[in-house]
Structures are given as structure tokens and as C-alpha cells.
Amino acid sequence: MSSLCIPNPTLFLFSSSTGALKTLINRARESCLRILSSKMISSKAVTSKKMGKNVGFLVCVFIMVIDSVAGVLGIEAEIIQNKAKHSKVLWMFECREPSYKAFQLGLAAAILLAITHFVAHLFGGCTCIWSKEDYRKSTPNKQLAVVFLLLSWIALAVGFSMLIIGTLANSRSRKLCGIAHNRILFIGGILCFFHELFTVAYYVSATAAKKEEKQNRNPPGGPTAQA
What we know:
The chain has helices at 9-83, 100-124, 132-137, 140-168, 184-217, 223-226; strands at residues 86-88, 93-96, 176-179. By secondary structure, the protein is mainly α.
């Protein structure tokens, strides 16, 4: 009976070795989980960056395609309008029969122009500078975004007005006599191409300005990166 009370050294060594193995296994699991979580976070960041680039590319392509189509429709509406019967009374006055096909094309061009402007400012946001000091302190990308924002609005206002005036001139069923609207639809179609350039430039510069603001708020060596 006394021999049973004596501890067995082999059992003691076995229990101590199993305990060490358990701790090693737990530590290995924790390290693997940390590595996997860090890889998942980095992969998510990479995929989000790729998605952002893809969205920006698709927005630019959408603006260029739709604005180009609007410009072509405006020019085509001018060509069809000129084929309709018209007679000049004086140098500035003429009698013209409206063209329903020109009305359709002009209206479609105006609608497409408005859609591209809305989409570009929806994804690009609104870049505002309220004073000269803000303009001087802002980054070059933000300054370019403000300039192209104004130019895109000017191109929209003038081009949309031209297309609507030319479209309304062909909306009536009777012959219209009045001041000659020469090349109004053509000018509206050409302004669609200028609107395309200004809007794409605005979107690119506004997106770059937003990225710069985020980097300035969260620098690489800042507290967020250290945490």
C-alpha cells in the first residue's frame, strides 16, 4: 500500500509534456488565426480598391459614351431639320415646316445630356470652395475640380438650352414663321462633346481630391495606422 502512494515519475513527465504541447498548439492556433485575419483584411482592402477603380472607370466610360451619343443626335437633328421645307422671307425671318424626327432626336439629346450630368455629379460629389483663401489652401486636384465643375455647368446650361430651343421649334404641327434658328441644334450637339470633356475631367479631379483628403485625415504613420 505504501508503494502506491509514491508518485510515478513517468506519469509526471507525460502530464507535463502534454500540458506543454497543449500550450504550444493553442499558441500556434492563435498565430494562425492572426495571420488569416490580417490576410483577409488586406485582401478586402485590395478588393475595395479594385472595385473603386472599376467604378471610376465605368463612370468615365458611361459619361463619354452617353455624351457622345447626345452630341451625334443633336447634329443629326440639325441635318434632318435642314431637309424640311423652309423659305426665307427676310435675312433673319423664315417660314419652316417642323420635323417630328428632328423633334425626337433633339429631345433625346437633351435628356441624355441631363442624365450624364446627373450621374457624374452623383458619383463625383460636390466640390465647393467658399473663399479665395480656401482656394489657395486647397490641393491642385481640388482647384481643378472646381474649375471643371463650373465649366461643366456652363456647358450644360448653354447646350441644354440650345437643344430645347431647337426641339421646341419642331414641336408644332403647322408651319412656323419667325426668327431663323440657324444651327441651334448643331451648336447644342457640339456643346455635348465639350460637356463630356469637362465632366470627365471634373470627375477624375474630384475623385483624386477626395483621396488626398482621406490621406491627410488618416496619414500612414498616424494613430489609426499604429492602432
